[in-house]
Amino acid sequence: MSEHSADFDALMRTLLGERGWLTEPADVASHGRDWLKRFGATPLGVARPATTEEVAEVVKACAAHGVSISPQGGNTGLAGASVLSAGETGIILSLSRMNRIVTIDPVDFTATVEAGVVLEALHARLADQQLMFPLHLGAQGSAQIGGLIGTNAGGSHAMRYGMMQDLVLGLEVVLPDGSVLDGARALIKDNAGYQLRRLFCGAEGTLGIVTRAVLRLYPAPVARSTALLALENLDAALQVGAFLRSRAGEFLTAMEFFNELGLGLACKHVAGLVPPLETRGPVYLLVELSTSIPKIELDAIVEDALAACFEAGTVLDGAIAANEAQRTAFWRLREEMPEGQRLEGPQIKHDVAAPVSRLAEFVAAASAAADAVLPGIRVNPFGHLGDGNVHFNLTPPEGAADFQGREDALSEAIYNAVIAHDGTISAEHGIGQAKVALADGYRPAAERELMRQIKRAVDPRQLFNPGKIVRW
Ligand code: FAD
Asked: How many whole angstroms from 82 Cα to the centroid of ligand 1?
């Protein structure tokens, strides 16, 4: 250890104590690499402050020693944003010890929580209070509120409740100079200036460290109606989706799509999955309505809408879940898409989005472009029809062991297609290290320059997560 880092180490130990400053390789290892084990570097240590004041002290100490900071929540992010870049001299600042649910307010419909609260713990706490925080995702057993804010997480219910930026009313944030921005207010209307809280949603820890958040709650649903439909193609799914929106209004909570290939891979590799409809695809739509009002007949709304769709010929087959077990079985089909594809072998994933109206057009264009690069490639697009977010995933042609060195050309074809359809190269997983060069390449010049200016203004010394989101 150099003299410089020995001083720093001693300072951190004094500030945080033994529990709050980890340097043993065994303790540091899991924090040093990202979820997908693609990115990371060994940090000088892992700081685990227990209070906002300690976070501020750590930030000041790092600033004084020229040490960068990667804020970290559950480390489930998929873009390499919560770990150091190769060659970086920095620390991980884990919010895990700041995990108190401070208040639940049933009048404001808010929860005030520390940044390290795990999403599932918040769900559990609300379960017996007829309240709900409407963000649900596969990583909810580990992902923390600070990380969800950092990535502006989405998930399956974003079409009804929005992304994290729509669920955050107020934030307390430690800034790169160690000062504390106290904006943890429970106001729906607050136009007293720039919407600063939004700046930190999706900022991937590059502008500030969230220490506390005031989150928006909703009444818990008392009833759901869930249907699985088979359709001719994605165009038909869009038509049905638009029709359901007009018929089901605010009750429509999720519309998820997948195709025959994805269903086949999931059923082949994941135990217990069975295609529930007699008619096979080629495209499937999972639709869910929910309500907190006991007297609303959701099944009747779905039945009426589906009858009209059958009559119009837009739906080939369909079933409404008769009970909770069947509902879970329908959802599992969708949720096991990634696992089915992973177990099939090599894959390339793209988290992209297009305007809902252009989704089918985009998927067709991107599929053709991928096939032109590698004939026979298996295209497995699935995702959130209600908000246009597609996980445009690829599997090698039947019988091929890999992508024959065409990975970059394939990704380029997909990203060019999504941009040509007024879409985005990152929908819900963010930019991090994984896409920073790509994003800078695709961003319009004015957007790129404004992002750089914001970063320079807030963090002139590049202390927080340097090299993530936007390059200097
Ligand atoms: P981390 O991975 O620890 O950090 C993510 C980013 O936030 C980093 O840039 C980090 O520096 C920053 N950060 C962490 N804490 C703070 C803080 N306190 N203040 C400021 N910045 C901070 N994402 C979706 O949007 N929708 C999905 O449906 C979805 N499904 C997933 C399913 C699985 C199985 C997995 C593994 C991931 C999934 N994700 C999904 C991605 C991931 O779960 C989310 O990005 C989540 O928001 C990350 O939370 P985290 O606490 O793990 O954050």
From this structure: 8
